[in-house]
């Protein structure tokens, strides 16, 4: 139900990971394929992106903690190991290291940036701190075609982002590629299947990076492309059926993509043994309730309970202007409403949740996974364990873009699958200050216009999150011959990969003009529209 902080808005963005089969009763993927690549995470901002890029080769990829023992890695039997980059210098005290024995397991290893420097350090080679940090585009000359650089031209554009670099290699290594400033842009060990590259093949700024990774994963590691979402869905459905037996599963629906895909998957698995609950807290977007009802009552014929709790939520929000207090009250009411409804459902044993792979990685739930680095800071809409249900989390192996593709495969409409994220506390955090029914009506109408115009301009999928905010100010205007003293709406539209940082969308002026004119003409009580041009940080995406 909650909005994950990692909501890629296009299919080329990163997202999260899954667990060891022992750690998760829902781990479907490892049973699906005996071929996996593992990424050891040294704190790189790109670790998830590497895993996603590998999965684009239809090869299953997991992110693991960097200090996992070589013994444990051998037990997991990956077909290849990728050492991610990271912010440290190999000479820093306490810099993260891997078990050097892993280079001798006979499993192919690819070190990227910091990972390459670790490989060199372990196997002979010198890493130097360069005077200036190299950050940006470079042209990489391939000096040893084949293997890593199979099917690539003699020179490729690459993206560099490093301070240290390998300055000399031992006789055991050979240079495979170089740039003007970096003599060892890529290296290969002469006897062991160990490779390194100083540049980042996983980012889109290395346009042919996908081929480099494919050469490692498919060519060097010999992985078959057998990670398919259709197989995933089939395996997940069988696993859900086996686990659930004749008991009942409850699934909270929010209108968001994660909970919708969970519900669709469960419906395919157990049909009428699924009960969905939608709490209408009065803070939903225009037509949100009908969209959910249409999809889950009319299309998928699930047993859908809609709880009309608008009055309750608005009563508890009355007189409250402080954003965190608004969130707290909404979260509390949500749990109470959900609990009450769930108690009325016979034989309910399981609660389904849309936990995704990034949530698993970041929560530290996988004992082999990297420790939590970024804690989820939004938990409104989450449900506490005390509800007493066993959890079913069928998406915990998937990245966001995979969830979207799965949704389409399960027959969910594009409109739902590509919805922008919406915060658990809903319109309450976009109606600044005290929330009232009247203000919500103004905001909902303005928001619907913003979305409609963005869709008409063909820009909905181009932006990551777009919405209206009702500001707590009145300003003077003139309409016809009369002076007005009315509300102001802010339009917010951002582009982001991970929702942790974001830039404001460069929407065309004509589109902004249309949005403004329509809101002022069609929404009573608004006489001014502003466009928010702040990036995150220092601003946040939401205004509260
Ligand atoms: P901020 O405003 O922190 O938002 O830049 C980042 C992303 O998180 C969403 N968000 C929330 N989601 N409960 C949620 O489930 C919340 O309280 C909450 N606050 C922000 C926001 O919409 C954006 O996608």
TrEMBL record:
Q: Does the keyword Glycosyltransferase apply?
A: no
Q: In which pathway does it act?
A: Purine metabolism; GMP biosynthesis; GMP from XMP (L-Gln route): step 1/1
The enzyme's main class, written as a single word, is ligase
**A single cellular component GO annotation:** cytosol
Q: Where is this region: Disordered?
A: 1-28
Q: Which residues cross the membrane?
A: none
Name the reaction it catalyses: XMP + L-glutamine + ATP + H2O = GMP + L-glutamate + AMP + diphosphate + 2 H(+)
What InterPro entries does UniProt report for this protein, alphabetically? Asn_synthase, Class_I_gatase-like, GATASE, GMP_synth_C, GMP_synth_GATase, GMP_synthase, GMPS_ATP_PPase_dom, Rossmann-like_a/b/a_fold
One family from Pfam that matches here is GMP_synt_C
**Role description:** Catalyzes the synthesis of GMP from XMP.
Know the name of this protein? GMP synthase [glutamine-hydrolyzing]
The organism encoding this protein is Roseiconus nitratireducens
**What's the gene?**
guaA
């Amino acid at each position: 139900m909650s909005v994950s902080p990692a909501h890629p808005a296009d299919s080329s963005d990163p997202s999260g990971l899954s667990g060891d089969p022992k750690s998760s009763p829902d781990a479907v993927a490892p049973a699906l394929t005996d071929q996996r690549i593992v990424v050891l995470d040294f704190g790189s901002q790109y670790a998830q992106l590497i895993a996603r890029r590998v999965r684009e080769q239809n090869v299953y990829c997991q992110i693991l903690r960097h200090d996992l023992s070589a013994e444990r890695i051998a037990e997991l039997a990956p077909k290849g190991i990728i050492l991610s980059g990271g912010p440290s210098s190999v000479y820093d005290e306490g810099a993260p290291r891997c078990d050097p024995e892993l280079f001798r397991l006979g499993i192919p290893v690819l070190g990227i940036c910091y990972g390459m420097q670790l490989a060199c350090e372990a196997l002979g080679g010198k890493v130097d701190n360069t005077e200036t940090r190299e950050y940006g585009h470079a042209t990489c000359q391939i000096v040893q075609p084949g293997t890593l650089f199979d099917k690539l031209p003699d020179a490729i554009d690459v993206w560099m982002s490093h301070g240290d670099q390998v300055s000399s290699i031992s006789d055991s290594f050979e240079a495979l590629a170089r740039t003007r400033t970096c003599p060892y842009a890529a290296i290969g060990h002469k006897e062991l299947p160990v490779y390194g590259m100083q540049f980042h093949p996983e980012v889109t700024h290395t346009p042919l990076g996908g081929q480099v990774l494919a050469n490692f994963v498919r060519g060097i590691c010999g992985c078959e492309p057998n990670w398919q979402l259709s197989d995933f869905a089939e395996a997940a459905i069988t696993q859900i059926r086996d686990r659930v037996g004749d008991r009942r599963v409850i699934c909270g629906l929010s209108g968001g993509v994660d909970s919708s895909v969970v519900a669709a998957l469960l419906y395919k698995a157990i049909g009428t043994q699924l009960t969905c609950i939608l709490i209408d807290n009065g803070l939903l977007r225009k037509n949100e309730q009908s969209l959910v009802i249409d999809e889950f009552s009319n299309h998928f014929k699930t047993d859908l309970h809609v709880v009309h709790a608008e009055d309750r939520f608005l009563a508890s929000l009355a007189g409250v202007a402080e954003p965190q207090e608004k969130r707290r009250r909404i979260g509390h009411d949500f749990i109470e409403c959900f609990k009450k409804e769930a108690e009325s459902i016979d034989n309910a044993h399981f609660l389904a949740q849309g936990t995704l792979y990034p949530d698993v990685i970041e929560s530290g739930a996988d004992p082999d996974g990297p420790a939590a680095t970024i804690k989820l800071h939004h938990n409104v809409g989450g449900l506490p364990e005390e509800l007493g249900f066993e959890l079913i989390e069928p998406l915990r192996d998937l990245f966001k873009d995979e969830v979207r593709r799965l949704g389409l495969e399960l027959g969910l409409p594009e409109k739902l699958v590509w919805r922008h994220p919406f915060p658990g506390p809903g319109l309450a955090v976009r109606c600044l200050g005290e929330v009232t029914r009247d203000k919500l009506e103004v905001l909902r109408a303005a928001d619907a216009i913003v979305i409609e115009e963005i869709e008409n301009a063909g820009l909905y999928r181009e932006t990551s999150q777009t919405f209206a905010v009702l500001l707590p100010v009145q300003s003077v205007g003139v309409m016809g011959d009369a002076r007005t003293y009315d509300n102001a709406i802010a339009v917010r539209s951002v582009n982001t990969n991970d929702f942790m940082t974001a830039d404001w969308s460069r929407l065309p002026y004509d589109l902004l003009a249309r949005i403004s004119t329509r809101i002022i003409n069609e929404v009573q009580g608004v006489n001014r529209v502003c466009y928010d041009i702040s990036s995150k940080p220092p601003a946040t995406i939401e205004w509260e």
